[in-house]
Write a structure and sequence with these properties.
139 residues, globular, mainly alpha, 6 helices
Length: 139
C-alpha cells in the first residue's frame, strides 16, 4: 500500500487524474473484497447508507462537493469511529466503493481538479479499509 498520495504537480492533466482515480478505485475494490466475513454488518440507518447513497448532485455545485460533503459527514471522527465503519453487507463499506464508482462517471468532475480531489478521498478510504483489514487480522 502506497504510503503517500501524489502531489497535484505530479498529475497535472485531466487524463492523469482520471487514471489516478481509477487506480485508487481498483485498490479500494481489492481491499474491500479481502475483508473478512466476520466483520459486523452495517446498519440500514447508518452513516454509510445515509450519506453514500445520496447521489443527488446539486445542479449549482460540482460533483466534487457531493464527495467532500459525504466524506466529511461520515469520516470526520476519531480513528476508532472511522474503523467502526469498516462493516459488511449491503449497508457496509462497499457503499463507499459504489459511491466513488458512480461519482467517477459524473460529468463535470474534471472541473476544479475533481478527479484529483476525489482520488485523494478514495486513497483515504483505501487507508481506512487497509487499517481495518490489518486490525481484523490481529484479532
Amino acid at each position: 500500500m502506497s504510503s503517500r498520495f501524489p502531489e497535484k504537480a505530479d498529475v497535472p492533466t485531466i487524463k492523469a487524474q482520471q487514471h489516478l482515480l481509477q487506480s485508487q478505485l481498483k485498490t479500494l475494490c481489492l481491499l474491500i473484497s479481502n475483508l473478512p466475513s466476520t466483520l459486523p454488518a452495517g446498519f440500514p440507518d447508518g452513516p454509510l447508507r445515509k450519506y453514500f447513497t445520496d447521489v443527488d448532485i446539486d445542479p449549482d455545485e460540482e460533483p466534487w462537493y457531493s464527495v467532500d460533503r459525504a466524506w466529511t459527514r461520515v469520516f470526520q471522527g476519531t480513528e476508532e469511529q472511522q474503523l467502526a465503519l469498516i462493516t459488511s453487507g449491503p449497508d457496509g463499506i462497499g457503499l463507499l466503493q459504489h459511491f466513488f464508482e458512480w461519482i467517477a462517471q459524473q460529468p463535470g468532475l474534471a472541473k476544479y481538479d475533481g478527479h484529483y480531489l476525489t482520488a485523494n478521498k478514495v486513497y483515504q478510504g483505501d487507508q481506512s479499509v487497509h487499517d481495518g483489514l490489518f486490525l481484523q487480522k490481529l484479532v
